Amino acid sequence: MxxxxxxxxxxxxxxxxxxxxxxxxxxxxxxxxxxxxxxILRKGKVVGSELLSQKxxxxxxxxARPSAGGYNPETGSASNLGFTSETLRKQVDERxxxxxxxxxEAEVPxxxxxASGSGLDPHLSPAAVEYQLPLVAKARGFSDEQxxxxxxxxxxxxxxxxxxxxxxxxxxxxxxxxxLENNVETxxxxxxxxxxxxxx
Length: 200
Fold this sequence. Notes:
By secondary structure, the protein is mostly helical.
């Protein structure tokens, strides 16, 4: 009985204390940023996470993919609405009309009218970002030269497939908007060479 009890104490300490703290320590040392939620700082303040989408109200910023959960990380989820749903059809029409009202092209990318499965997808395809590019430029009153630099900034913000084979090209919307704001504030958007852009 004493041996059984000793084994119980040993494995409880090993699996319940030693192992968790060991893994936590390894994570903190080897993946410091990831273990804290991949948080993004701007001017010393946390403004979001690379892993979570945010809603941007101003037309001066690139808009993230629609969220069925209101961009709330605690309730992030899909809507479970099927393609035959009248509610889904109305939502899609409303989102499409939003882009058309801003002067967007008639062929709106699906990512901009359909919510993602998690409701918190932080990325958009380059095509969905390029669709918004002239609209953002118009809202900011950019000149033709500034638009050229904005295109280069978008290209510089593009993430490529992992190891060249896993996933697709994508752009983190939050990081792109922060890069845009930084370059506007420093006038780099209209004067700097692409290699000097401050991107996240």
